[in-house]
Write a structure and sequence with these properties.
This protein is an alpha+beta fold and 244 residues long. The chain has 2 domains: 39-102, Antifreeze-like/N-acetylneuraminic acid synthase C-terminal domain (Type Iii Antifreeze Protein Isoform Hplc 12), CATH 3.90.1210.10; 111-239, no CATH class. The chain has 4 helices and 11 strands.
C-alpha cells in the first residue's frame, strides 16, 4: 500500500472516530442522562407484607425515584395498591408490581397461599344438590354448617363451632372450581366445598364428613368487611369460653 493511500485510510478512520465521538457526546450522553435524571413516584414497601396480606397505607410509602429502567408494570399510585393482596412475600424497600397483587385472594384462586399458620383448609362432600344450596354457593360466602344425621324433633343439629365459616371454593367432581353460575350438565354439579377453618373446626368437619350428613345454609354474601365481622364473631367463640 502506498504512503498516500495509507494516509487517506487513516484520515477516513480519524473522521469516523470524530463523528462517533460527537454522536456519543452530543446525542447519546444527553439522552441517557436526561432519562436517568427524569424522576417518577412509585409505591414502595415500608413494612414486611406476607403472602395473602392486604396492602395498606401503613405498610407502604410513596417515593420519588429515577424513571430510568423501571419495570413497566410497577405500581405508581398508593390508591391503586391499597386494598389489594400480595401473592408473594414483600420486604421493606421492594417495589410493588401488578403481577404480584390480586384484588381478592379467594376469587383469584390463590386461597392456598393465604394460610398464616393459624388457619387450615378443609374440604367436605356435598351429599346432594339441596345440601349445597342448589349449587349456588360461591367463594367468599359465609355459611353455617348443620348435621341432618343427628336430627332431634325433626330439627337438624347446629354447631356453634361452625356457625360462621368462610367458603374458599366450590368444586365439581372433576376438580373444576365453580362460581355459582347456572348448572348446565351433570359434570358441572358441585361435589365438594372447601372452607377456611381452625383446628377445632377441621376436626369436627372431618367427623361429620365420615359419620354425619352435612347441610349448608348461607349466612352472608357481599362486602368483605362485613363478612369479616361474622368471622371475627366465630373466632371470638373459641376465645370467650364458647359464647357466641
Amino acid at each position: 500500500m502506498s504512503r498516500k493511500n495509507k494516509l487517506n485510510k487513516q484520515t477516513v478512520i480519524g473522521i469516523v472516530c470524530l463523528l462517533l465521538a460527537a454522536l456519543i457526546i452530543f446525542i447519546i450522553v444527553p439522552v441517557v442522562t436526561g432519562a436517568i435524571k427524569t424522576s417518577t413516584q412509585v409505591v414502595r414497601v415500608s413494612k414486611t407484607i406476607s403472602v395473602g396480606q392486604e396492602i395498606t397505607k401503613e405498610n407502604t410509602e410513596v417515593v420519588e425515584v429515577s424513571g430510568y429502567n423501571l419495570p413497566g408494570n410497577i405500581i405508581k399510585s398508593q390508591d391503586e395498591a391499597t386494598g389489594k393482596f400480595v401473592t408473594a412475600r414483600l420486604e421493606p424497600g421492594d417495589y410493588i408490581l401488578d403481577t404480584k397483587v390480586v384484588t381478592n385472594m379467594i376469587s383469584s384462586g390463590n386461597y392456598m397461599s393465604a394460610l398464616d399458620g393459624n388457619k387450615r383448609i378443609v374440604s367436605v362432600s356435598i351429599k346432594d344438590l339441596a345440601s349445597g344450596i342448589s349449587g349456588k354457593l360461591q367463594a367468599g360466602d359465609i355459611v353455617s354448617v348443620m348435621n341432618n344425621a343427628e336430627a332431634v324433633n325433626n330439627r337438624g343439629t347446629i354447631y356453634k363451632e361452625l356457625k360462621y365459616v368462610k367458603v374458599l371454593a366450590v368444586t365439581t367432581g372433576n376438580g373444576i372450581d365453580v362460581s355459582g353460575e347456572a348448572i348446565s350438565g351433570e359434570d358441572k354439579l358441585p361435589a365438594t366445598i372447601t372452607m377456611l377453618v381452625n383446628e377445632n373446626q377441621a376436626q369436627l368437619l372431618a367427623g361429620l364428613e365420615k359419620n354425619g350428613n352435612i347441610y349448608f345454609t348461607l349466612i352472608y354474601r357481599g362486602d368483605q368487611a362485613k363478612a369479616n365481622e361474622f368471622l371475627k364473631t366465630q373466632d371470638d367463640y373459641f376465645t370467650n369460653n364458647g359464647n357466641i
